[in-house]
Amino acid sequence: MKKLILSTLIAIIPALSLLAQSVAIYAKNGVTMFADPEQVGEMIVSGGQINIGKYTFPVSDLDSLKYLDTGFNPQLVEITYTANDSRINVPLNLLDSLEISKDGAYITVTSHVLADPEITYSLSGKTDNGNFLLVGDYKCGLILNNVDITSQNGAAIRIKNGKRIDVIMPENTINNLYDSFGGTQDACFHIKGHPEFKGGGTLNITGNSRHAFKSGEYTLLKQSTGKINILSAESDAMHIGQYFQMRGGQITISSKVKGDGIDVEKDSDMTKELNGMVLLDSGLVDINLASDDVSGIKCDSTFTCNGGQYNITVSGKASKGINVPYDAHIFAVYDTPRFNLTASGGYLVEIVGGKEDKKKSSCFKVDGNIYFHAGNITTDASGDKARGLKVGGDYYYVPSKATLSPADYSNIGGAMRVMTE
């Protein structure tokens, strides 16, 4: 019967193809392939197989063929989750470049693309038992289009690709990611390469095993970025390699995060640019951490801020609002930087060389020099022995443009140096 249906359809293809913009080939495994009518050409059914363009499929694997009056994006793979299952739309021309494995709502795509045009993957729908794993070696795009993924086995989204990954959150979309409990995965949303976020939607991430978000290389939030909310994490909220740059958007990190808020670590390749740095150009960051000995924002190198607002509260013992091991530079390039920092926790006692050492909390801790050209830093060091602004080196500032409140300079390790600009 299947062969008869396909043979009948093929017999009327010449008439249908005159009106159609695309043909959809529906497979029984939930994968739909799209092609141009010209690409499909003459379809021949023989020996239980059907030839569609240059591809051959067992007739038993297909459900139906349908001509459509709409087109399709030849570089877009669409994945729609439904409960414990999923559907995948893939252009026929990409079958030579992609290996797709589907087990219910657990999807693995291996890409062999090594040159333009790049492929974009769009995720939508809801599953309580699924994930998305992408393996590749070339830049690509990832659209989070009202997707809600809860994984029972590892990360919700894992991109094993060391290249640039465009993460697109369309306006008005709300996306939710939850990874499995007690897993070995590094993060709920883990990208090996360097993600660049854009789009005005919202992304909510819950890290049930370790980090909520992790990137192996730099993470960039573009001006159009909407909201990223870290609802909880067993370790860091955002653990980032190489550097972190925020040009816009809003990040909210809740007190259910047990590690650092934004932790940037140096790449092992010391030749990489901006290695270990934080660069804050604009946007809004709200962080509220309750664990001991954690930092709201932490880096392995220089800290630079050119604008934006940063509200950070740490209530655990020996915790830091902002923790910089080198120099810090604060300018008003894009707008006036505003820091509202609270350290309400006390201190931890450590034994160093047989003696007690009190590890104290700080609102803003800089081990090197601070260059405060413009902006406002407001500190509330309410914890026992907590520090407001603690600087290991010299304190450079422009009196007419840089405001420290309260103006407590007792924790400056070096000299006070006035700058004209």
Largest sheet composition: 26 strands, mixed
Low-confidence stretches: 1-16
* Helicity level: under 10%
CA-based shape: elongated
Q: Report, as a whole number of angstroms, the end-to-end distance.
A: 82 Å
Q: What class do helices, strands and sheet pairing give?
A: mainly beta
Q: So what's the oligomer here? A: single chain
Output the radius of gyration: 27 Å
In short:
By secondary structure, this protein is mainly beta. The strands form 4 sheets. It has a 26-stranded mixed beta sheet that branches.
SSE topology sketch:
Layout lengths: L1 H10 L1 H5 L4 E6 L3 E5 L1 H4 L3 E3 L2 E4 L2 E4 L3 E7 L7 E7 L2 E7 L6 E6 L1 E7 L8 E8 L2 E6 L4 E11 L6 E4 L3 E5 L5 E5 L8 E5 L2 E5 L3 E6 L3 E5 L3 E3 L5 E7 L4 E4 L1 E4 L3 E4 L8 E4 L11 E4 L3 E6 L5 E4 L4 E3 L3 E6 L5 E5 L3 E3 L7 E6 L4 E5 L2 E5 L2 E5 L3 E3 L2 E6 L6 E5 L3 E3 L4 E4 L10 E3 L3
Parallel strand pairs: 2-8, 7-11, 10-12, 11-13, 12-14, 13-15, 13-16, 14-17, 15-18, 16-19, 17-20, 18-21, 19-22, 20-23, 21-24, 22-25, 23-26, 24-27, 25-28, 26-29, 27-30, 28-31, 29-32, 30-33, 31-34, 32-37, 33-38, 34-39, 37-40, 38-41, 39-42, 41-43
Antiparallel strand pairs: 1-2, 1-6, 3-4, 4-5, 7-8, 9-10, 35-36
